[in-house]
Specification:
The chain has 115 residues and is mostly helical. The chain is built from 5 helices and no strands.
């Protein structure tokens, strides 16, 4: 009974992540692999050796700054994820499944902090 409830959450977060990466790729003029390379270089504080890698990393930094400047995007995502996790949490608590409720709360909090 735990898996059927968590699968929709996993699907929504996976599709949301792919949608955000595709939006970043379109804004940066690259593909999803370029976005992932730029994200990895940013996290590891590396500077790519090739000119294309540096261009994509610079575009990723500009895109990230612009996205952070638009706080409405984050608020909307927090509201949607919060409502989704709160609904699942209430269902688990009504069912009496406390471990699943705690796991759902932890996953929801982790997703909220990751935004």
């Amino acid at each position: 009974e735990f898996l059927p409830v968590m699968v929709p959450i996993w699907v929504v977060t996976t599709l949301t992540g792919r949608w955000q990466a595709a939006a970043a790729a379109a804004a940066m003029g690259t593909d999803l692999a370029g976005v992932r390379r730029a994200q990895r270089a940013f996290r590891k504080k590396e500077v790519p050796e090739d000119a294309e890698g540096r261009r994509v990393l610079g575009a990723y930094l500009a895109y990230s700054r612009e996205r952070r400047a638009r706080r409405g995007t984050f608020v909307c995502a927090w509201i949607v994820l919060g409502l989704l996790c709160a609904g699942v949490l209430v269902l688990f608590l009504l069912d009496g499944d406390v471990p699943a409720a705690l796991l759902t709360a932890a996953v929801g909090l982790g997703m909220a902090l990751a935004l």
